[in-house]
Amino acid sequence: xxxxxxxxxxxxxxxxxxxxxxxxxxxxxxxxxxxxxxxxxxxxxxxxxxxxxxxxxxxxxxxxxxxxxxxxxxxxxxxxxxxxxxxxxxxxxxxxxxxxxxxxxxxxxxxxxxxxxxxxxxxxxxxxxxxxxxxxxxxxxxxxxxxxxxxxxxxxxxxxxxxxxxxxxxxxxxxxxxxxxxxxxxxxxxxxxxxxxxxxxxxxxxxxxxxxxxxxxxxxxxxxxxxxxxxxxxxxxxxxxxxxxxxxxxxxxxxxxxxxxxxxxxxxxxxxxxxxxxxxxxxxxxxxxxxxxxxxxxxxxxxxxxxxxxxxxxxxxxxxxxxxxxxxxxxxxx
Length: 334
What we know:
Blueprint: H1 2-27, H2 33-44, H3 57-86, H4 89-104, E1 110-113, H5 117-128, E2 133-137, H6 140-146, E3 153-155, H7 161-166, E4 174-177, H8 182-195, E5 200-204, H9 210-217, E6 221-223, H10 225-238, H11 240-251, E7 257-263, H12 275-278, H13 280-284, E8 287-293, E9 296-299, E10 312-318, H14 319-330
Parallel strand pairs: 1-2, 1-4, 2-3, 4-5, 5-6
Antiparallel strand pairs: 7-10, 8-9, 8-10
């Protein structure tokens, strides 16, 4: 709303200047363009220098007619712009416009629907992984607490098609439905799949019985914070040292270990080789923990396991080791 008012105020001033200049040039044949523009602007701003005056009766009548209009336009424009500046809206509008431009340039990004406690954790992790993303939420207080000044965001209802399109869903690779209610997450899943059928949707489920509904709605993955939290607490009691080790390795920023998944393409030199022949651990330092082949998950594969086209290899290692494996898998066979 403020943006539209500022735009109309600016257009009104420019329109008045153009109209007044053209009118004076029409009635005052001896005036040049600069003289006409000067007289129009002094009339608009009610400065009244008196150094340039209309010499014809028609010119005087024309200026008398547009003077009230000019005063009204200036009063309106000053009121709108001053109000925006005083309330900090102008800077906010420019910031939102710059953010919209950045979002419009995103490609293959993630849309995080919901900026609450769960959505914020998702955003933090994506930020650490340098993955482009945008947060969507309609609650200004939540955005102010978790998102403002940190991440790209769209303020609006994630259940609205237009809001998801503003977040660039047609160019996105995934949607995280992390709103507080399961019903909203079901609706987001349906909306996202309706706009882009092949987009990956990961949905939050607070109740176990909602998992089936989310999957039927099209969610590719369903995550229950309550279930994960409960299992984590049980393991912390039963195997505290192991849990601490996993937390340290995967979540401590002082350590660079992480997991990665990579699909082997037909041109990869690793196709047709066993894990022993590929010498992945020796060449990169990364460790193959599983292979996902079709619907079969091969956990802790042996060295005799032969790699096939479209195998998804799941690895564990440092960022440098994982990048080394990507280069090894992507290299063209000699």
